[in-house]
């Protein structure tokens, strides 16, 4: 049974607090963690490139042989390939009428409300890209999980894709993901020499133009976040795909859709659950059904534990089950 590791791998909050002692930024990171549980689990490391991270992966083992006395064997060597995961740059600029800010009587608190809005938007965009980002169609983004785990028939990682049901053309589905976070498995990265986490730069006062070409004085703030996703070992990720939410689940929590069986298959398909911090990710409706199955006392794999920063966490076989609404209920089949 896997155990929930805490404090051993650097999260976004750890990286930001180490690199930037500004407490207001740290507080914002905590706010985002409350609305997107993926930030509680993702581990972060500085990339080895100015625009991403290059990973050397062993692609072939050397041949070996049993040797007979007086007979030699042929020398051989292993083979490797290098994979580059690029970072994307997410940015936003806030412009607020200076007079409006001054009238509030508490400019700093008012500006913070706008900061929250921009950072929430960046949080949601990050989560969407984490799963759906495809550099083939959007080269400015980073490569997410879906394009990497989309071929259950011929891809090298095909065994890491478990199909809930056969792909019915025209149907829409959702997925459950099992990810083992760690320095040698899966982690998020930022450019070499860069700053991990969000950057907030107050640009001060400026003259800006409205939609009718009128001008007014405004306070401007620039937000940016550079990040990428590195998959060093695809054996440490499993996608449970083709879950037909619309037809397989009714309002009854004891519906015929067997989430637990698929999740058991996923844990067995992971190469090494102890190699990092494992976590399941699913849409809130799927997790709601899973939690309602707690009512079934015979299902001993599902528990509620207060084991993460004092918060109650739904666990499956000792692995936290996280809610991530960036996983939609309208995916195409694989």
Major sheet description: 7 strands, mixed
Question: What is the structural class?
Answer: alpha+beta
Q: Helix coverage percent of residues?
A: 25-40%
Element-level helix/strand string: HHHEEEEHHHEEEEEEHHEHEEE
Strand arrangement, major sheet:
5-10-6-11-14-13-12
Could you give the count of β-strands?
Answer: 14
Instruction: Give the overall form.
Output: globular
Strand composition percent: 25-35%
Count of domains: 1
Average of the residue pLDDT scores: 80
Q: Radius of gyration, Cα only, in angstroms?
A: 23 Å
Low-confidence regions: 1-7, 18-34, 251-255
Distance between the termini: 30 Å
Count of separate DSSP helical elements: 9
Describe the structure.
A hairpin with a 2-residue loop joins strand 12 and strand 13. The protein has one domain. With 334 residues, it is α+β, with helices and mostly antiparallel strands. Helix 1 packs antiparallel against helix 2 and helix 2 crosses helix 5. The chain has a 7-stranded mixed beta sheet. The two termini are 30 Å apart. The radius of gyration is 23 Å and the shape is globular. It contains 9 helices and 14 strands. The N terminus is likely disordered.
